[in-house]
Amino acid sequence: MSKLLEIKNLHVNAEEKEILKGINLNINKGEIHVIMGPNGSGKTTTANAILNNPEYTKTEGKIIFDGQDITDLKTDEIARKGIFMSFQLPEEIPGISVTNFLKYAKNKATGKPVKIFEFKDELKKYMEELNMNPKNMERSLNVGFSGGEKKKNEILQMLVLNPKLAILDETDSGLDVDAIKTVSKGIKMFKNDNNAVLIITHNTKILHELKVDYVHVLVNGKIVKTGEQDLAEEIEENGYAQYK
Amino acid sequence: MKTQVEEINRNIYDIKNKDEYDFKIKKGITKEIIEEISDQKNDPEWMREFRLKALEVYNQLEMPTWGPDLSELNMDEIATYVRPKTKLNTSWEDVPEDIKNTFDKLGIPEAEKKSLAGVGAQYDSEVVYHSMKEDLIKQGVIYTDMETAIREYPELVKKHFMKCVPVTDHKFVALHGAVWSGGSFVYVPKGVKVEIPLQSYFRLNSPESGQFEHTLIIVEKGASLHFIEGCSAPKYNKVNLHAGCVELYVKDGAYLRYSTIENWSKNMLNLNTKKAIVGKNAQMDWVSGSFGSKISMLYPMSILNGEGAKTEYTGISFAGKGQNLDTGFKVVHNAPNTSSVVNSKSISKNGGKCTYRSLVRIKENAKNSKSSVSCESLMLDDFSISDTIPVNDIQTDEVEFSHEAKIGKISDKAIFYLMSRGLSEEDAKAMIVRGFAEPIAKELPVEYAVEMNNLINLELEGAIG
Question: Among B283, B281, B162, which Cα is nearest to B226's?
């Protein structure tokens, strides 16, 4: 299997405080990885550090993606190399419709003009699969969307932008059972042998719908255990207490 | 990088023609100078007297000290009257080549063909072109320069000229009364609906000079009009002054929409005065975009004199490096059942300053009136400044009044979100700013909305590079 993402000894500070204390993680093409951990363990920091959010500072370590060192690249450059992040709290951007935003972002991501009719068909197909209200497409990006609508909109963006690596940061949190099923369906539609998914979560419901390759337990800024799907089930039963 | 972009950005506006003129008055404000302007303009006697009285008021009034610092303005360094080397023309072909080219590049003759019912174009102190569609002339609509109006419609002008904005209002209105030149006169007869906008464009080319155009619009009972005003100037090292005056009479049941796009160069002090008197069940809408000038002090005002009168103000200002834009809206509710709606946005970046300064006065007799004010400011960095200074004077309990102000910095989280989708920092910021400005942009005449978006893009590239 060929390597897609390699995180080596990553240390990250947020507001002067060390949050990640030496993370190592390898993700190959074709795999689904899960990072689980209690609140405040550094899950969201991991996702933000991969995309080099300027609010976080890397003090040590490297991130290699598709053979290139992306540790210090700007967020948009990382995105254009093929990493996507689904946000825990997607931002509301007034003044641009979902359709126009996606067209614009796809154009930026691919560097090619978007073919309107193909694009619209694609969008329609994905939206049906995700049970999304077509009316939302002409509304401003995420403005006035419910929590569930925002999360589905993130999955829609993932499908349209078709990255090599999709990081889903707590995409399942706050969703009801049906919405979680829809999100899982989106992930299954996206996933193939040439891309990979990193799911960040603190509960296991979403994992029931998916076949997961690796589960990593993140506690206090370190990966304390890595296993397969059964590790998630074990945590569901016993919690994180034994890892603290 | 920055300078380069700003130069590209403004290149249309920055075309400097040679300072050629038929006559340029010597600098300063004295009785002799005012008399000379009056002679040069061939004023009727009443206007000559009017100017001299205004000069007396000017000499008595103090400089305003409550707003931006105007100490760099030295009236001894400003020539208040510059007559271009041409007469008023009714065909662009007759306008001298370099002046016509300037208006061509500003897109005026093109817009005239496509989307306007009439156009006036002023160059320095005099109007060089005026024209209106035949069918409006037939309906009795008058659209001409102020000088022609004084000659041809003396009674109508005398009855209204500086009655809505008296010369005693403030020092720069008094100055205007003394040295005014050019501007537009519009008269829309009872019941006539002018469906397509009229537009006047004011261009100041001459360095170390001032522009003092006077716009007087009368919309008779049940009539309607959309009037667009544009202005620009190339940049010089020394201060230029703009102190225009706009007087609007919106009679009972009439409708007037007054849209302004002000894109003065960044050496301009823009001290402009605009006021409307609104009659029974009439409506006055202001749309205002302020992008240029070094200092602006601009507070359009509606006086709701008739029962059921309405007014709306929609404004946006964008202050960059070295700019201090002090703008806002004033309204006086002076009759029952009147209403006012204010929607103001400002953007400041690169050390620019935007202030929203307003007045809402609801008089005791204005029972059952409504006023709602919303102003939002967006700052694009940590060293730009935004301020809101509202004055609300509500003299009766029987009103609905709301005031909402939001001041904030552009969200780093929103920028990160957009960048995570592959947009560059510049594109992300421009998208956020465009979204912020969009509710206002859609109120602007369409070619100006496009221009505003371009301006936002270019200004932001300049700010980041």
Answer: B283
Res. A238: pLDDT tops 70: yes
Q: Is the ipTM of this complex over 0.85?
A: yes
Instruction: Classify residue B249: in a domain, yes or no.
Output: yes
Would you call A95 and B417 a contact, using CB atoms and an 8 Å cutoff? Answer: no
Number of domains in chain B: 2
Task: Note if the pTM is more than 0.90.
Answer: no
Residues 6+ apart with CB under 8 A from B65: none
Q: Give the mean pLDDT of B431-436.
A: 90
Contact B435 A51 (CB under 8 A): no
Place of tokens 């000559």: B48
Listed residues B298, B329, B348: the one ending a domain: B298
CA quadruple B68, B71, B73, B75: dihedral sign: positive
Question: Residue B316 domain-assigned?
Answer: no
Query: Between chains, do B434 and A95 touch, taking CB under 8 Å as contact?
Result: yes
The residue among B417, B429, B456 with the most chain A CBs within 10 A of its CB, best to mutate, is: B417
B196 is a domain residue: yes
A-contacting residues of B 376-435, CB under 8 Å? 411-414, 416-425, 427-428, 431-432, 434-435
Residue B426 included in any domain: yes
Domain that holds residue B415: 411-465
Mutate: best of B413, B420, B438, partner A, most A CBs <10 A: B420
> Is B371 buried (19+), middle (13-18) or exposed (0-12) by CB count in 10 A?
buried
Residues A50-65, mean pLDDT to the nearest whole number: 97
Boundary residue ending a domain (B263, B298, B333): B298
Please determine, for residue B138, whether its predicted confidence score (pLDDT) is greater than 60.
yes
